[in-house]
Amino acid sequence: MANNYVDEKEMEEDMPIIEMEDDKGNKSYFGVDMVIPMEKNNFAVLVGIVLDEKGEFKDVDEDNMVIARIEFDENGEEVYVAPTDEEFEAVREAYEKMLDEWDEAED
Fold it and tell me: What global pTM score does this model have?
């Protein structure tokens, strides 16, 4: 699925929301949960967002998460692209490690 940055809105919780469109024109909305710098790239951990009929934030769909590499188009706009398998695994491991550390700190 080729996902490109389309639009950015601000969610109630100050989480940037991006609209992604797949090859078939289906639109999905994701909130940028975290940006993880790794080597020379930045990777976004995106969580699914549910919007109401007015297009306003309604809920978070935590079962729908995506990892995307952040690149820039010729206009300097962010573009979210699929990472390589190796990048995906490295970012997933880093994200899970951060979550574990936060859980341990809360205990």
Answer: 0.75
How confident is the model over 21-27, as a mean pLDDT?
A: 88
Query: What is the DSSP secondary structure assignment for residue 14, as one 8-state letter?
Result: S
For residue 36, the number of C-alpha atoms closer than 13 Å in the C-beta half-sphere is: 24
Residue 98 near residue 90, CB atoms below 8 Å = no
Integer angstrom CA distances of residue 94 from 17, 33, 99, 101 = 22, 14, 9, 11
Q: How close are the terminal C-alpha atoms of the chain, in Å?
A: 39
Q: 27-45, pLDDT tens digit by residue?
A: 888 988 889 999 899 999 9
**Hey, is 12 helix, strand or coil?**
coil
